[in-house]
Design a protein that fits this description.
Layout: E1 4-7, E2 11-13, E3 21-22, E4 26-30, E5 33-38, E6 48-51, E7 55-59, E8 61-63, H1 84-95, H2 100-116, E9 119-126, H3 135-145, E10 148-155, H4 174-188, E11 200-203, H5 211-224, E12 228-232, H6 236-246, H7 250-256, E13 264-268, H8 274-283, E14 286-289, H9 291-296, H10 304-310, E15 313-316, H11 329-344, H12 351-365, E16 382-386, H13 398-404, E17 412-415, E18 418-422, E19 425-426, H14 431-447
Helix pairs in contact: 2-3, 2-14, 4-5, 7-8, 11-12, 12-13
Length: 449
């Protein structure tokens, strides 16, 4: 693997435990890891050297929740102004027409958008498998792009005829789901340090799978040593469903089925109450906070300040592009900052805390101790942000300015020391051709009955 030097950045924002922001230092990368941080003249020569003058070096952002297949259903008529349940009912039939090429192309476009916003690691929650679709479609697409990927084998098993939300045509047999979960983990999951693919198990939600599948998935995940992911307490409808169907709040339901612990992370959690926050803090259960999607669907503002103060692991998620309409993780960090200030005042969250959530927080939620900061021994996942030009030029605090005024996008991005974004463009794929394919497939879904 070629060695790399990043020379003379204005600052290295390490996100280490001491929160060091280093001036006058450069970076040496060997075998995909940070090997040395020192003044430029003290670094050994490298195969590739990048002049980073006027730029900030920031750890790669970590996305903890996405539905990449939804890229093909952005701004769908009839779903733009709906709350969660009606939004899903409008979109389920469209998603049911997808094929494997829809999954492949939407995955690469969505991950590419994330990379252009500074994201080097992303999870994905794929819970529909119509026609010839399979989780391997998205995994192979991510591998071609070159980002670090945490796909989860989602599932729906309770259709409308049994009191669930999805149409019966989109649900699967539960024994087949569990068999495929085991097969996908065996084929693709890599638990080693520096892994580029880690697979999790992710029954979609309490309103689309049975109590038995939730329990059995948790047992299987622990047997296989992989993570667990689902949606929880997303909005008032979600709370009402849990109370009417299960006689308890979502947090109690999750706990009763083994869905708490450091190997579990739940998406949204907008409506967690104090007892559920305490439960998550005590058990090490993580949360994927999705501020833009929560605003778009009118779900509310998650109590992130209370979660963080209690010690809950919180990362950021862009959620699917059918409920966010974008995949910009740096903007997600900005919105997380602003929403907590709307709730609690201007001192509720600092820009640096929001950046910490977007990097270290996401790494913790995904169970990664090898990413999320720039330090010797950590994976060489990072982006360069040019603060010598507008909007970042001459700001009093260039680190806070990344969220307060910009730039929100990196000029360059590396994953495992390999370039994924170069001078603002995707470096690993034929991006213009991919955009054409994406547009063609989206039109196909629009025009098909």
């Amino acid at each position: 693997m070629p060695t790399l030097n990043i020379l003379n950045p204005r600052l290295i924002v390490t996100m280490n435990d001491a929160a060091d922001e280093l001036a006058g230092q450069s970076l040496h990368v060997v075998d995909g890891k940070v090997a040395q941080i020192a003044p430029a003249e003290q670094l050994p020569p490298a195969d590739n050297s990048v002049n980073a003058a006027g730029k900030i070096l920031l750890p790669g952002l970590v996305n903890t929740h996405h539905h990449l297949y939804q890229n093909l259903t952005r701004a769908v008529t009839g779903a733009q102004d709906a709350l969660l349940f009606d939004w899903l009912k409008r979109l389920y039939p469209i998603w049911g027409r997808m094929r494997s090429d829809h999954i492949r192309v939407s995955t690469q476009i969505g991950l590419g958008e994330l990379a252009l916003s500074g994201c080097t690691t992303s999870s994905d929650h794929l819970y529909i498998y119509p026609n010839d679709c399979h989780l391997s479609d998205s995994i192979q697409a991510a591998q071609a792009l070159g980002v670090r990927f945490h796909p989860t084998r989602g599932a729906m098993s309770i259709g409308e005829s049994q009191g669930g939300l999805p149409p019966d045509a989109l649900v699967e047999d539960e024994s087949a789901i569990l068999r495929d979960c085991q097969d996908v983990v065996g084929q693709f999951n890599d638990p080693s340090e520096g892994s580029m693919v880690r697979v999790g198990l992710a029954p979609c939600s309490p309103f689309s799978v049975s109590r038995e599948l939730m329990r059995d998935a948790a047992l299987l995940a622990r047997e296989l040593g992989v993570g667990l992911h689902t949606h929880l307490a997303e909005n008032d409808e979600d709370i009402a469903y849990s109370q009417s169907q299960f006689g308890c709040r979502p947090g109690e339901y999750a706990e009763s089925l083994g869905w708490v612990g450091a190997d579990v992370w739940h998406a949204h959690c907008v409506k967690l109450d104090a007892s559920e926050i305490d439960l998550f803090a005590r058990t090490g259960t993580g949360v994927a906070h999705c501020p833009c999607s929560n605003m778009r669907l009118g779900s509310g503002i998650a109590p992130v300040r209370e979660m963080r103060d209690a010690g809950v692991a919180v990362g950021l998620g862009v959620d699917g592009s059918a409920s966010n309409d974008a995949a910009d993780l740096m903007n997600e960090a900005r919105q997380a900052l602003l929403l907590q200030r709307v709730r609690l005042g201007a001192d509720a969250m600092s820009a640096r805390e929001a950046l910490h959530i977007a990097t270290r927080g996401g790494a913790q939620v995904l169970g990664r101790s090898d990413i999320g900061q720039i330090a010797p021994g950590y994976q060489a996942d990072f982006g360069l942000y040019d603060v010598s030009q507008v909007p970042g030029a001459d700001t009093w605090d260039p680190v806070a300015a990344l969220l307060l005024c910009g730039p929100l996008r990196p000029t360059d991005l590396w994953v495992q020391g390999r370039p994924v974004v170069t001078q603002g463009h995707i470096a690993t794929l034929d991006w213009p051709k991919l955009v054409e394919d994406h547009a063609r497939l989206a039109r196909e879904l629009m025009e098909s009955p």
